[in-house]
Each structure stands twice: as C-alpha cells, then as structure tokens.
Design a protein that fits this description.
Number of strands of chain A: 24
Largest sheet of chain A: 7 strands, mixed
Oligomer: heterodimer
Largest sheet of chain B: none
Shape of chain B: flat
Helix content of chain A: 25-40%
Chain lengths: 570, 342
C-alpha cells in the first residue's frame, strides 16, 4: 500500500509539472526502474522522481558528511574500503551501481539491466548494460565485473574482513586455518557466460541475492585497467563508470567529483560538480548550511537541530527499514519466562516516546519490517500492545518488580535516549532498571560475556530493506547468532524459508508469519522506524532530498546523477 | 715560530674557555638535563597510551567491520593489522619502528607519518595563534586593569574574564560561528586547507579565538592580581615611585616584568590542556589538524594513530615547559638553575 501511494505521488508530481512539460518530461523519463521482483526477475520500466523545483542542468553543490560516519574515508578502492557502506555517496558517484534502490523501494537497473533466477533459486544471471565505458575509456563488461568480484570475494576482500554476501562454495581451507575462516570462491562460482552476462552459483537458494548487492562492495565496479595501472594508489584516484569522475581527494576531509562527460545516461548527471566535505557535528553542519557553505547535509540525527532546520531548509524524512526493538535473552531469567516477556510488551508504549523525543518522525511498528523495505506490515496479528493494567498484573505475578532488569544499548544518542525513556516508562509501573551503554566493541563483549548468558535486555535495531540482508532479522532472532536472545528452531525455519525463496509474495508470507510468531511468543517488542533525515537548502532537488528513499539499513543511497540545484527557485 | 706557537696555544686556550663557558651555562645545563629527562617521560607516555588502548574493552577489527562481521572476518583483519600478537611484542615492534622514524599505519592503512606531517603544522599553528593572541591581549587588558584597581577597566575586564572562564570553548565556538560566519560572513564555518598566511588567518581565526578566549580569561585574572600585588606591596615599587618614576612606567617596566614569571609558569602548565581544546575545536570547525585525528583515532580504536599523536603532544608539552624554564633565565639573569648560590 505505501509503495502504491508513493508511485501515485510520483505520477502526480509529473502531471503537476505539466506547465514545465519539457523539463519535467525529461525528469520523468530519465530514470528507468523496475518494481521489487515478485517473480524472481527484474527488468527496466520507466518511472520518475518527484521534484520540488524546476529541473536545471549544471551548477555545483557541496554535500556535508558527518565525520563520525560518512565523512571518514581512507581509500575508495572497493575491497580495501572498510568504511564501504558509510562511504556509499562517494562510491556511488564514482562507480555507479549495478542496481539502485530507488524511490518507492524499487530495484532500479543502473549498470546492470536486469536479472533472473533459476527455478531452484541457486543460480542468478545478471545482464549488464552494453556500450558503457569506464572513465579511462576501457569497456565495462562481464569480464570487468568478474575481475572485481574475484578481488572482492577473494584474498583482497577477505584480508579486509569482507565476507561474501551470498551463499557460495569456497576453496578448501588450509589445514592450519581456524574454523570458519573465509576462503576465496571455488572455481565456477562466478561465470562469465557472455560479453555482458555474468552468472552466480549458490550453494542454497538465495532470493535476496540482488538485494544483498545494496551497500555491499560487490555493487561498485572499478576499471580493471586502472586497477592494474595504478596498483596501490588506485584507492586515492579511483576510476569507475559512474556519473562523476574524481577531481581531487583529501581523505577524511574533502572529495571533489566532476561530471562524467561520457556517462551512459544521456543528459545526466545534472550537476557539474559535487564537493563532499566532512563536518564535525549536526550543529556545525546546520550553521554551514545557514552560511551557504554547504547545500546538503545527510543523516541529521539531533532532534533539536532537525526541528530548527525545518524552519530554513528542506528536511526529507526518508523511509526507515530497520526498526528499533527490545531484544530479550530467553535463555536466562527473568526473560526465560514468557509471562515476564509479555509484561514488558504490556509495559511498553513507544508512541509518546516517539512523539516527545523524535518529534513524531518515524512510525511505531510491531515487526522487523519498515515502510521503506519489502514485506512491510505496521501492525502484526496477535501483538500485545501497551496495557498498563495487564502489565502491573504480570509484573506482580512474575515477580519482575523484585529484580533489577539489566537494560543495555550502544552509545549512540538515539539509542540512549530511547533506552532512558523506556526505563522511565517501566519504572512508573514498578519495575527497576539498570541502564548501561557501550561503544560497539563493548556492546559485542556484553552480548558474548559468559557464553551469551550475562545480558538480559538490549535496545537494538533489527532488519534492513530486505530482512535477509545486513543486520537482518536472523542476526537478532536466529538461533545461531551470538547477538540473538532467541533460540527457536521453528523461527529459524520460517526465516530461512523466507530468505530462500525467489518469489517476493512467498517471502513476505514467511516474514509476516515470522513476525506473528515473534509476537505470539513475546520474543521482543518493536518500537519505531527511524531514518535520519537529509537536510538541503531550498533549490536542491532529487531522490532522498525532496522525495523519500528507502534506507538499505540505516540511511538511503542518493543517486547523485538525478540531483540538481536550481538556486533561483529557492 | 715560537710566537706563532704561542698565539696558537692562546687561541686553543681561548676556544677551550669559550667551550667551558658555553657548557657551563646554567641555561644550557638545565636544557640538557631536561632533554635527557624527556626520554623516560616520552617512553612512559607511549607505554601508558599503548596500555590504555590495549585494555579498553574493544576490538579494533570488530569496530571497523561492524556488528555483523563474522568471527573469521574479525580474526582475518586482526591478523592483517598485527593485532593478534602479544602486547609486549606489539609495543616493542611499535617502539623500535618509531625510533627508526616510522610511526606505522592507521587501521585504515594510511601512513601515520604522513598524517602527522600533513596535520601537525596546522595544529601547532592554531595553538600558537591562540596562545600568542591570548597572552598579548591578557597582558594589555591586565595592565590596564591593574592601573586602577576597581576602576571601570578593571571591572570590565573582570566581567569579560568571568565570561571566558565560565564559557566552554565549544559553546563559544558556536557563538563565534553564528556572529562572524553566518551573520557577518567574515570567516568560514568549515575551515579549508591552510596554504599561506591569508588562508591561515581566514581559516584559523575563529578556532583560535574559541581556544584562546578561556586562556585569555585565566591569564588576565592571574596577571592582574599579580600586578596589583606588586604595585601595592613590593619595596622596589615604592622605591621607584619615591624616585619619581611615573606610575604607568613603574607598572609596565618594573611590575609587569616580575609578574610575567607566574604567567610563564601557567602557560607552560596549560600546554597539556590545549590538546583537549584542540581536539574539540578542530572537530567543530573541521580544521585538518591532529586534534581532529585524535578523536577519529580514539573512536576507531586506532592505536598507531592515537600513539603517534599522543607522542607529538607530549613532545610539544615537554618542549613548552622547557622553553618556559629557559624564559625564566632570560627574564631574570640572577636565576641559576641547580646552583646552591642561586
């Protein structure tokens, strides 16, 4: 339903732009998209992005990136770029992508034109765009993708800690290697079957295989000739087939990219130049936008600054896909008791917290799917909602009021605020809570301490655009994950079947069953979907800036070739 | 021939005396002692930093790869980074490399030497700018204030100093940004690269003011109090006044010189504290200095980067204190370090 609404709004935007028909028509036909695959294959179809200002070609903008996340980079060579997903803006501008995650959650062909699964779901064939060249003039083709994937999945990627996003056969590990050590792909896993066709063979059906490209290094294809020519310095002067060409690069500080004159999409990119500049905080970014030292700031997360920004700038709340949830450790008391878990469900009311702490941005949710992702359902059948009377009864009945609940989270402001508010809410119902927060490494240690039996409750996020990707649902609710408090074979089966099918409606059926199963067993209440908004000065338009985009996990990837700046309309 | 030999002997004797005088100089002796003392201090600093980075509940590879990295991926990256070696082995390896001028690589693979070479001058320039301006302004304001205790200038300086003492540098930074960058557009919010004097003042003035305001407040209060005390209690001031030296001249020529000692001591002690200020202010203004790098390094658990930067800051602090000690001798030749007759 939300997807349909967004498609309608896109159509409306195009019709409303009839007065500027020529320009708008260009916008409406510039991006080719396909809807999320319902039958295991995808092909190009035409749609558009809604815009708020008349389309204008040319000009330049400065995009501010947070030093704590997207503004920190060292190398832009995909398998050496350990900050890969965080630096998606730079990577996508320079390399483009095989597929884009477009407006409305659509899979948009970019350097690939389509894909298809074999009937058993164990083979994926990707067709590549013909006639594309890298910015060094060498051809983009299946051999180039093969060369890149051998680096990504092979020793270069492995030495940097990257794992294959797909279930593939690996070369036999040396006898001395510790168990679980990643190895390069076995012969025949990746095959070039034509000049523009590449095939992947899996060890198990993988319906999420294309979605697993998003935010992963395998979607960024570098020029093999440049890789060979530049060697170790490639990461400082990368060469791709994306909409922009690198002009200058000061790691962790400033990256300037200029329009790629040979870009495959005629008339694009719209901007002549983008300067990505690192900024230290939301407040500094806000002041820089006010001083017109920047035109776009991505992923603003400080609520007060977001509210201030709404008075001066365009604030686009993108579509969340990774809801905050409460993980309960069902292996140890008190939450090995289903009634104690039910008590927390009944004691938790996230609507006022969302309103007061996050200005009502985002949506409360009852499952691990989000409005930007596939299989979204906001309400889950059988979900125990807020009921303070029931909560008090259950708290008394289970003796939960006689213990101190150990509640923890990562030391990120949004998570800490959520945890604090939640603890306050619970304490008003007679619960005692001890709060802890750690940096990522401390959080991992807390999960793993005492064989995973020390922690009781954690405020976390679960899910992604596709629940089978990234920090997906198996990661939080699967029996084999060290970061899960649930060990239920029935849930494992549901989630595996969902990931294994190539049919979207079948997958969604399993995921929705899994959500209901989690609700029925009180495995963990869900809070809300929140994606940090992008903030831009008036006149800057494009997907993710003036129209919502889906986040892969935390933030969306902006297709910079579609972004333009029309200062006269601001 | 004998005369030539005699002249030669005299010359050699003169050279020996000059060398003896030079090596016997108290300032040089103290400099030599302090330079020797630097070695254990620096080793201690590196050891402490290394130990702290090691005992922190962290895993560098996990921090880089994120929560969903598999244990094998974490192990592979730890191996690549050499983090799977024992503590002493890592420390010794790092220390011997540093002694050979190699600070190692950041966890992202960049050369720490390069990071330091590019960013140290900017940070030193920023700190020097903040220090010089705050000291000069403090001397002027404190002298004016001490001229007439409880006068208008004194009260005004008290108010400004209290503001400086009670305002956190990061809060003052945003005030400066709003006024001078957003409203007046005199300076940028986000600093660009420093390539010459013009860009130095354009990019570093607001950061330097943010750091320097608090220092100015401390120095002003300290110097003003010392000047007032000198002017009211010291015999040499009474003598000077009795000799008919104008009060303004007594203040600037006699009292100020003596009061500068305390100021120098405080400046020396403040150098270490400037490190923290630089880290915060550089992040706000996005100054490409090592303070900014330090915060990034800490959040990434990047031990080589943090150790390299800490070593540089330790060197600056020790060198600053050494300079302060030497400045005493320059200001007052009666001071003889380490001499019983001093």
């Amino acid at each position: 339903m939300p997807v349909r609404l967004r498609l309608m709004s896109m159509r409306t935007a195009c019709l409303a732009g009839a007065a500027a028909m020529v320009l708008t028509a260009a916008a409406c036909s510039s991006s080719s998209t396909s809807t999320p695959s319902g039958n295991g294959s995808g092909a190009a179809s035409s749609t558009s992005s809604p815009t708020s200002a008349p389309l204008k070609s040319g000009g330049s903008i400065t995009v501010l990136e947070s030093s704590g996340y997207s503004g920190a980079w060292t190398t832009l060579d995909p398998p050496n770029n350990k900050e890969g997903a965080a630096t998606q803006d730079f990577m996508t501008a320079i390399y483009g992508q095989l597929f884009e995650l477009g407006t409305g959650g659509a899979i948009v062909p970019d350097l690939a034109t389509g894909y298809s699964f074999s009937p058993d779901g164990k083979t994926l064939t990707i067709n590549l765009r013909q006639g594309v060249t890298f910015t060094d003039g060498t051809p983009f083709n299946a051999q180039a993708v093969y060369t890149n994937w051998m680096r990504d999945l092979g020793t270069v990627g492995i030495s940097n800690g990257f794992n294959s996003p797909w279930p593939i056969a690996e070369l036999p590990a040396p006898k001395t290697a510790p168990p679980g050590t990643a190895e390069p792909p076995a012969a025949g896993v990746v095959q070039v079957t034509g000049p523009y066709t590449i095939v992947l063979h899996f060890t198990a059906p993988d319906g999420a295989a294309v979605d697993q490209l998003f935010d992963n290094i395998e979607t960024w294809i570098a020029s093999p000739a440049a890789l060979q020519k530049e060697g170790a310095s490639f990461g400082q002067s990368p060469v791709g087939a994306g909409p922009f060409v690198m002009a200058s690069n000061v790691p962790n500080s400033e990256l300037v990219v200029k329009k790629n004159p040979g870009y495959w999409q005629t008339g694009y990119p719209l901007l002549n130049q983008i300067t990505f500049k690192t900024v230290g905080s939301d407040e500094a970014a806000y002041e820089a936008l006010l001083a017109n030292e920047g035109q776009v700031y991505e992923n603003m997360s400080t609520n007060q600054v977001i509210t201030e920004s709404q008075a001066h700038f365009t604030v686009e709340n993108n579509l969340g896909t990774s809801p905050y949830d409460l993980q309960l450790n069902t292996a140890v008391p008190p939450f090995n008791n289903p009634k104690a878990r039910e008590a927390l469900y009944a004691a938790t009311n996230f609507a006022p917290i969302l309103q007061h702490l996050f200005g009502g941005r985002g949506q409360t949710t009852e499952g691990f799917t989000g409005p930007g992702g596939i299989c979204y359902e906001q309400t889950v059948p059988g979900y125990q909602g807020y009921d303070p009377t029931l909560a008090k009864q259950l708290i008394q009945q289970t003796g939960l009021n006689k213990v101190t609940i150990q509640l923890g989270t990562i030391s990120i402001q949004t998570a800490q605020d959520s945890m604090q508010a939640l603890a306050t809410e619970w304490e008003s119902l007679g619960l005692h809570v001890k709060q802890s927060y750690w940096p990522l490494s401390g959080l991992i240690a807390a999960f793993e301490a005492n064989g995973g039996k020390s922690w009781q409750a954690m405020v976390q996020t679960a899910g992604a655009y596709d629940p089978a990707t990234g920090v997906g649902v198996l990661f939080r609710f699967g029996s084999h994950s060290p970061f899960s408090g649930v060990h239920d074979p029935k849930l494992d089966t549901l989630l595996s079947e969902a990931a294994g099918s190539t049919n979207l409606s079948t997958r969604c059926g399993f995921y929705n069953q899994a959500e209901a199963f989690i609700a029925k067993n009180y495995y963990g209440p869900f809070f809300f979907n929140f994606s940090p908004p992008n903030v831009a000065v008036h006149g800057v338009s494009g997907p993710g800036i003036t129209s919502p985009l889906a986040s892969v996990a935390v933030v969306p990837t902006i297709p910079w070739e579609d972004v333009y700046y029309n200062p006269s309309s601001s | 021939m004998a005369l030539v030999q005699q002249i030669q002997l005299q010359r050699e004797a003169g050279a020996r005396n000059r060398a003896r005088r030079l090596t016997g100089s108290p300032a040089l002796r103290v400099a030599g002692r302090r330079l020797l003392a630097i070695i254990p201090v620096l080793i201690g600093v590196t050891f402490l930093t290394f130990s702290i980075m090691s005992v922190l509940p962290n895993d560098t590879a996990q921090a880089i790869l994120g929560l969903n990295a598999t244990p094998s991926a974490v192990a592979a990256l730890n191996h690549t980074l050499g983090l799977d070696q024992p503590f002493w082995q890592r420390y010794w390896h790092w220390l011997t490399n540093v002694l050979h001028g190699n600070f190692g690589s950041t966890v992202q693979g960049a050369s720490v030497n390069h990071e330091l070479a590019v960013h140290v001058p900017t940070t030193l320039g920023l700190l020097l700018y903040a220090l010089v301006v705050s000291v000069l302004l403090a001397i002027i304001v404190a002298t004016l204030a001490a001229r007439r205790p409880n006068g208008i200038m004194d009260r005004l300086s008290l108010a400004v100093s209290m503001l400086g003492l009670s305002t956190a540098p990061y809060a003052f930074a945003f005030l400066l940004i709003i006024v001078f960058a957003v409203k007046l557009s005199w300076f940028p919010v986000l600093s660009g690269p420093v390539t010459g004097p013009g860009s130095f003042f354009k990019n570093l003035t607001l950061p330097a003011c943010s750091i320097g305001f608090g220092l100015f407040a401390i120095y002003t209060r300290l110097l003003r109090a010392d000047l007032v005390e000198q002017m009211q209690r010291e015999d040499y001031i009474v003598t000077a006044k009795a000799k008919g030296v104008p009060p303004w001249r007594v203040l600037t020529r006699h009292a100020l010189r003596n009061s500068t000692f305390n100021l120098i001591t405080v400046i020396g002690l403040n150098l270490g504290g400037l490190v923290g200020a630089a880290a915060i202010i550089e992040t706000i203004f996005q100054v490409q200095g090592i303070g900014n790098d330090l915060l990034t390094g800490i959040s990434n658990h990047d031990a080589p980067l943090v150790q390299g930067i800490t070593l540089v800051f330790a060197l600056v602090t020790v060198a600053g204190n050494l300079l302060a000690d030497l400045a005493y001798a320059v200001l007052d030749p009666r001071i003889r370090y380490g001499s019983s007759s001093s």
